[in-house]
Amino acid sequence: MANAADILNPSAPPDKSRKYALPERERRFLLACLPDNPVIVRTARITDHYLLGTRLRVRHTVEAADGSTRVVYKFTQKVPAPDGSPGLITTVYLDQAEYDALTTLPARQLRKTRYSIPPFGIDVFDPPLHGLTMAEIEFPSEAAFHAFAPPSFAVAEVTNDIRFTGGRLVTTTRDALLQALADFEIYPVER
Questions:
Q1: Residues 41, 29: contact at Cβ < 8 Å?
Q2: Which pLDDT band, with edges at 50, 70 and 90, does 11 fall under?
Q3: What is the reported pTM?
């Protein structure tokens, strides 16, 4: 990953590049399936709308934990680092009217279920990406990011593999996904 201090948003004025954006210190791992006997503290049904021709995403999440649910709406811009790894992230929380207005814009959708299995969020994707399971973990510092050892249940780290970013996955065909998974010797069963 590029050093977070060196990542700039090329769309912002030079002195404002990092004013609202935070470094995204996230690592992503490809899994063959959910880990055995996970302790799930929360589940979330996520629908992402990736606005065509942009780095922008509108997200609708229905979170369930401890017998209750809540809905969260977010508007996010992700600016990747020059090497393709996570870079800067800016997120705005929305109300439903703002979400509804933004989802009228042309976009592609991606749906998944996220299982919160500390310290990971594990995403299980809906068709046409069924069979894709990824774990992600966020870090408070560069040192923690680099010190983390991959989990034993991971098939491979895909933090710097652009094929496994949301912006790319939203346009991935079933055949392209199966080929990418085969590169890691993962062969999902068709449902």
A1: no
A2: confident
A3: 0.90
| Residue carrying structure tokens 């992600």 | 136
Q: What share of the chain is helix, strand, coil (3-state, %, to 5)?
A: 20, 40, 45
**Alpha carbons 120 and 29: distance in angstroms, whole number:** 10
**Strand order of the sheet with strand 68-79?**
22-23, 88-94, 68-79, 56-65, 42-51, 107-117, 120-125, 133-138, 26-31, 154-157
- Could you tell me how far CA 149 lies from the centroid of its own chain? 20
Tens-digit pLDDT profile for residues 59-110: 999 999 999 999 999 999 998 888 777 889 999 999 999 999 999 999 999 9
Give the SS3 label for residue 173: coil
